[in-house]
Structure formats: C-alpha cells, structure tokens
Amino acid sequence: MNSGNNLDEFLKKQSKRVHSSDRSLANLVRDAYPIGVPALIMKSSTDRMMISSGYSFILGTPDEHLRSLASWLITEAGNTHRTLLKLIKRLWKRHGREDVALAAILLSNIDLKGMGTNPWKVLVDSIHPVEPVDSLLLNIEEIFRAKRQPPSEEMMLQWIEGRKVEQHLALIVAYSGKIHGHYFSDEIIRKISLIEIPTGDSILSRIIDKLNEN
Length: 214
Prior knowledge:
Blueprint: H1 3-12, H2 22-32, H3 39-51, H4 63-77, H5 82-94, H6 97-109, H7 119-126, H8 133-145, H9 153-160, H10 164-179, H11 186-193, H12 202-212
Helix pairs in contact: 1-4, 2-5, 4-6, 5-6, 6-8, 8-10, 9-10, 10-12
C-alpha cells in the first residue's frame, strides 16, 4: 500500500467531531505528516536542515501528501472555514516546516473574504519576528498560484515601514508578483530597494538585484 492509500485510510478513521476544534486538527495533521515517509532515511538529512532553518521540526513530508491533507481538511470543513483559519494561526505558532507549508495551501484556498480578511493580512499577522526566507516564499508563491490579487500598495508601504520580517516580506512579494504579472509603483520599488539586507544573505540580495532589472 502506498503512502497516499495509507493517508486515506488514516483520514477515514477520524471522527467528524475533530473538525470543530483547531487544536484537534493541529494534533491530527501532526500525526498525519510522517505517514509513508521513510523516517530512518529522512531523519539524518532533516536533522541537519533543521539546525539552521528556524523551523521547530522538518519531517520531509512530500508536497502531494500535504495537498491531499489540505484537500481533506477543506472538504470536511463544509460551508464554514473559521476553524481552518484558526488552524492556520495555530500551525504558524507551532512552526514546523510541514505546518508552514500546509498553512500556505490552506491560506490560498479557503474562503477568507467571508470572514472579513484576506490572505496577505492573515500571513503578516502570523509570521514570527524572524522567519526563514523559505517560509515566506512558500506562502507567497502559493497565494499567487491560486490567482489571488497582490496586497494593496498601502499595505506594502506599511510593511516597508514595519518590522524587518515585514520589509523582507514586501521585497519577496514584489519580486514574486512581478514573475506572476503583477507590478507595483516606482515609489514602492524604490523604497524596497533601500531595505537593509542582512550581511551574507545572498538570496535577498539576488532578489533585490532581479527586482531592479529593467
């Protein structure tokens, strides 16, 4: 039986009551992450990755596994996604690599407008004061792939004038948005170009260079 079938069997056994509690769902998905993942093979490499990653854990759960899990969560949630919104915030707080990746998929696909918010507001309210670039990229790319609109220029200006992590968020959003066909004003790009990049952070430096091309 492959890992997908194993996950399906695990999910079929879950009580319907679990969907009324974001805490219960967080525990459930943590149990689901390792299903089908060869733990002994993955452990040495994930342990090395976690040392400098900023994540609380990395299990090596494949992307298709996380997407199947997100699909099940959204389908079983029914007509209201309020519990899933709470789950997103809880996953960010726990901050495993799989948590952040699953939160990105949920954030991009649940109905937030009906709850008076949008994915960018939820994202900026969820991120920690220090974040791996990977965690920001995961969420930004997922939001744009879901054909969501970019943040407003007013929101971008707030980020540029905000915490370091928000400044870096604005930088990556502007760059990723450009790739997906979205553009910000010259004023926004000029201010982003002045953002201070940590010494030795080649990823953010390359992103600024690419953003300033043309």
